[in-house]
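protien #1 (seq + structre)
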Amino acid sequence: MDALGDLLRGVRADGALFDRTVLTGPWEESRSEGAALTLVSVVRGTARITAASGEPRTLGEGAAAVVCTSAPFTLSAAGAGPGECELVTGAYQLDSAVGRRLVSMLPPLLVVPSGDDCLPILELIAAEVAADRPGRQFVMDRMLDWMLACTLREWFDLPDACPPAWYRALGDEVVGPALHAMHDEPSQPWTVASLAARAQVSRAAFARNFAELVGRPPMAYLTEWRMTLAAELLAEPGATVASVAGKVGYADGFGFSDAFKRIRGIAPSGYRASLTARRPDSGSLRAVG
C-alpha cells in the first residue's frame, strides 16, 4: 500500500484557478475563502502565515504551507524592508469522502521548508499561471495536485510532523502487514485471526498492539476504512448499494447499509441522493485572493 496515495485519494483539482500575487514593502492580507484545504507557496522572497489562532510561521523562498481549515488565515510580510514577495495560492473545495479524510488527519497548518523536490514544480506553476497556452487549464489542475502531493510527502518525512497514527504504524512489524492487507484488499473477509496470521503473531498480541498503535481495535478501523471507500464509490455514476457493498467486503446490501448508517449517520441510498443534489458544484477548485 502507498499510504500517502491512500490519503490523497479523491483529492483532485478540477477547473483550477490559481492566485498569483506579487507584493512589496510592508503588507498584510486576510484570506477567508471557506476552502477545506489551501496550498500557499512562496516563489520569491519571504512571507509570514498565521492560521487557526496559532503562532505565526515564516515561509522562505520555495517554502509551502497547507491550511487545513475553512477558518480565515493571514499572510503578511516577514520583515519591514522593501523586499518583494511572490505567492501562488490555490484552494480545494473537497466533496469527496476520502479527501475529507485527508483533511481530518492533518493539523490546521503545516509548513514545509524549501526542498529540492518541490521547488521545480513551484517554478513551473508560477510560469503557467502567467502564461496563456493551449491546454493551460488541464496542466494547472495537474500541477496543483502534484505540488500538494510533493508538499505532503516532504512534511510526512519531517522529524516534528504529526502524521495519523495508522501512518506511523505502517512501519511496525506486527501492525504494518495487517494495515497493508486492509488497504490493499478491503473486500477480503478479514477477521482478527486472519489479520494476526498476516502479522505472524497470536490474535491477542495482534489486537493489543494494533489498538495501542492505531488507537482503535482492528475491526473498527477496517469498518471505518471500508465506509470511507464506500462513500467514494457511491459517488460514481451508475453505482448501486449492492455493487458497492461487494467492493468493500459485504456479501449483501443489508449488512453494508447497517454498517454505513452506523458509521456515517445516513443510509447509503440517502447519501447517494445528497450527492446527486449537489453534484453540479462538486469536485471543483476555486481561486483565492
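ok now protien #2
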Amino acid sequence: MTSHGSGSRATVFLVGEIDADTAPTVGAVVEDCLRRATDGVDIELTGVSFCDASGLNVFLAAALTAAADGRRIRLRHATPAVRRLFDLTGTASLLDAAGTGASVPPLRVARRSPRAGAAGGLR
C-alpha cells in the first residue's frame, strides 16, 4: 500500500486483500490522506484481489468523513472480485466504483421515517 498527494487530491494504491486484519491499516492511511487533501482521495483498486465487509466499511466511513467537508472519495478500477462486493451490497452508486474516475456528488445520509400505518412500521 502506498499513497501520494498531488495538489488538492491524494491517491492511495492498494494491493492484496482487504479484510478484518488489513482494514484498520487501510483506514488509517485513507484518513491520513483525507487530512492532507483539500478535495478528496482517489483509491486505486487495480491490485486488490479480495475485499470483505471490513474494507467496504472503511470506504463508506471515509466517504462520510469526506462528504461532511464537501470532499469526495473515488474508488478507481475495481477488480471483478471487489466490484462484486459493491454490486451485492448495492453500494456501487455511493462511490465511483466503476473505474471511470468520474466524480459523484458527495454522499448524503438521510434518516428514513416509516410511513404512517405501514404494515410492520414503527410508530
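The chain has one domain: 2-94.
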